Amino acid sequence: MDQDYYEVLGVSRQATEQEIKKAYRKKAVQYHPDKNPGDKTAEEKFKAAAEAYSVLSDREKRDVYDRYGHQGLKAQGQGGFSGFNSDIFGGFEDILGDFFGFGRGRGRRGPRPRQGRSLEQLVELTFMEAYEGVTKEIKVRKMENCDVCDGSGLRAGASMKNCTTCNGQGQVIMSAGILQVSQPCPACGGQGRMVSPQDRCRQCYGQGKMERSSTVKVPINSGVDTGMRMRVSGKGEPGENGGPPGDLYLAIKVLPHEHFDRQGDDLHAQVAVSFSQAALGTTLEIPTLQSQEKIKVPEGTQSGSTFTLRRCGFSIVGRPNSYGDLIVKVVVRTPVRLNREERELLEKLDEIQKKKGNNQGKSIFQKVKDFFQHH
Ligand SMILES: [Zn+2]
Ligand SMILES: [Zn+2]
Fold it and tell me: How far is the centre of ligand 2, averaged over its atoms, from the C-alpha of 167 (Å)?
């Protein structure tokens, strides 16, 4: 069973980042394997806390988890403990620092590589684009490395100086009860070095990054539908300290079609036939998304009857050359605004049917009356 991450850490759903961090630190210290040798339960709890923290401390993962729960994370391939391995111990290292011996012997740790932020973008497709598949040029606004300083934040010729907050250590020591915990320096982000105000790049003001519009060409499979989400790997914002870039998520919206109503892989359409066509039978030409098909409507067809054209429906996503069906509903149109000749013909028809004396000519009231007389 997947445990609720908030319950694991013992925090409310509204907990702040700070509260989550604090709760995790407490659990991690309590259940750390070094303090509980051979204790399986403690180890499980330690892992569960690490997993919960890796999700709830990440703004995006937490957002996905809040909205879609464990399923949402799994759908993005982020579920479960295995997906986090690298992150868990990295995160642990950040919080507990050298206390338990993580990172010992490695000297001063450099800044940790971080994946760039992922982005989400809505993509509208016409019905035909979704049916045939299309390559879309998608405009995204995202933070990119500044092209003047190439991401360094430095003006030309300048170099980084030691951070004045941590004296170039990259770490600051925080006291948490009996624990002395070293954390990445908040001023330099753990790098130990910083851009002095007089050395800042003029274009990005020392940030090293700027917001830019760029265009991403994305091939979209045929058969996609509204509500589907596509991941374009590596097209999010650039990573930090050599980390990988984030991903771009495309939320698909397919615009409706004038004549076809899509339900899953099937299409539904309505075709009107005249009263006489329904009575006498006819052949209908049906324009489908691919071609022109014929439907034979037999004589005596009732309004609301359906006809299925196999493989004339929507394309099935991920299965090339597979299609749903097209279901055509025949609606009989009662003739209106009759001219004299039509009226005479229909009156004649009515007369003949009355003479035939079959049920067709009887009113609904007559039928009800008959029913009670015979039962
Ligand atoms: Zn710059
Ligand atoms: Zn610093």
Answer: 6
Q: What is the CATH number of the domain that holds 370?
A: 2.60.260.20
Question: Can you say whether residue 257 is alpha, beta or left, with left for phi > 0 and alpha for psi between -120 and 50 degrees?
Answer: beta
Q: How many beta carbons lie within 10 A of that of residue 221, not counting itself?
A: 16
Per-residue pLDDT for 146 more than 60? yes
Q: How far apart are CA 220 and CA 197, in angstroms?
A: 46
Q: How far is the CA of 20 from the centre of ligand 1 (A)?
A: 34
- Residue 122, domain extent: 114-147+208-255
How does pLDDT run across 270-296, given as a tens digit for each residue? Answer: 999 999 999 999 999 999 999 999 999
pLDDT at 364: 65
Asked whether residue 188 is domain-assigned, the answer is no
pLDDT at 177: 66
CB under 5 Å of ion ligand 2: residues: 163, 165-166, 185, 187-188
Residue 201 included in any domain: no
**Ligand sitting nearest the alpha carbon of 186:** 2
Query: Same structural domain for residues 288 and 346?
Result: yes
Residues 284, 341: one domain?
A: yes
* Nearest ligand, CA 162: 2
Under DSSP, is residue 354 helix (H, G, I), strand (E, B) or coil?
helix
Same domain? 228 vs 336? no
Question: What is this structure's pTM?
Answer: 0.56
Which carries the bigger pLDDT value, residue 8 or residue 83?
A: 8
pLDDT of 329-373, one tens digit each? 999 999 889 999 999 999 999 999 888 865 555 666 667 777 776
Q: Which ligand is nearest to the CA of 143?
A: 1
Do 61 and 133 belong to one domain? no
Which ligand is the nearest neighbour of the Cα of 205?
A: 1
- Check if the beta carbon of residue 55 is closer than 8 Å to that of residue 34: no
251 and 218 in a single domain? The answer is yes
- The residues near 43 (Cβ < 8 Å, ≥ 6 apart) are 31, 33, 36
